[in-house]
What we know:
It is built from 1 helix and 5 strands; from the N terminus they run E-H-E-E-E-E. By secondary structure, the protein is mainly beta. It has a 5-stranded antiparallel sheet with strand order 1-2-5-4-3, with no helix packed on it. Strand 4 (45-57) and strand 5 form a beta hairpin.
Amino acid sequence: MVNPAPKAKDLQIWGEFYPSDIILYALNRPPLEPGDVVVDLQTDKRYSVQRIRNIEVLGKIIEQQAQMSLLHVDDEIYSLDIKGFR
């Protein structure tokens, strides 16, 4: 689930947050790392993972929350064709 407009209390967790940033809520697989690229297959927008917040229960990650920044359309990552992975 993607939340493009987080509440003010959510922003306190992340610190610096720009209008083009979004928060991704995901399960524990695949594990996300800062610098990963996430692609929205519906719009072909590509986001770079900036920060990760893991939710753990009994020492096991059950949920990941990732702050992601929209990559500019001129970024070379857009030259990779991913249409075949749908």
